[in-house]
Write a structure and sequence with these properties.
Length: 150
């Protein structure tokens, strides 16, 4: 009888192997420009993405009360990091996701003054940040990538 239980336990443990699907590309082909609602939240129906951005605005401007109607620029790179910025910001914020939350991985200073017309482009394996028609920076999740022309 003990042998039966031991054999049953071994069989059930061997069926608990994890499944890994790879490679996976998480990138969004284009940035999303999402308007902040009255609750401080941005929504994107295409990627089924919703997040409260009040803490992001507070981190950048020390003000989270005046976010209604602001636009947040969001793009996702191939490894799955989210890049966010907005008009008037000096930083790009890089987030990773885990357990239903976005966690700040890196705060990248991209300009000494406020960026007036930020825009992201997907330039695998990098993210390109523009300010109007001028290229500002080439980024990855570690920060600014120097010497790279996508």
């Amino acid at each position: 009888m003990r042998m039966f239980f031991l054999l049953a336990a071994l069989v059930s443990l061997s069926s608990c192997t994890s499944v890994v699907l790879k490679p996976v590309e998480f990138a969004w082909p284009v940035e999303r420009v999402l308007e902040v609602d009255g609750k401080g939240t941005i929504h994107d129906d295409r990627y089924i993405f919703t997040v409260n951005v009040r803490p992001l605005f507070y981190e950048e401007t020390q003000d989270s009360a005046n976010v209604f109607g602001q636009s947040v620029r969001v793009i996702r790179d191939y490894p799955g990091y989210y890049y966010m910025t907005a008009k008037g910001f000096r930083h790009v914020y890089v987030f990773s996701e885990s357990e239903g939350a976005l966690y700040l991985e890196k705060k990248i200073e991209v300009s000494k003054g406020p960026v007036s017309e930020p825009a992201f482009n997907q330039r695998p394996p990098y993210i390109q940040l523009l300010d109007g028609s001028a290229e500002l920076k080439v980024l990855n999740s570690d920060g600014i990538v120097e010497g790279v022309k996508p």
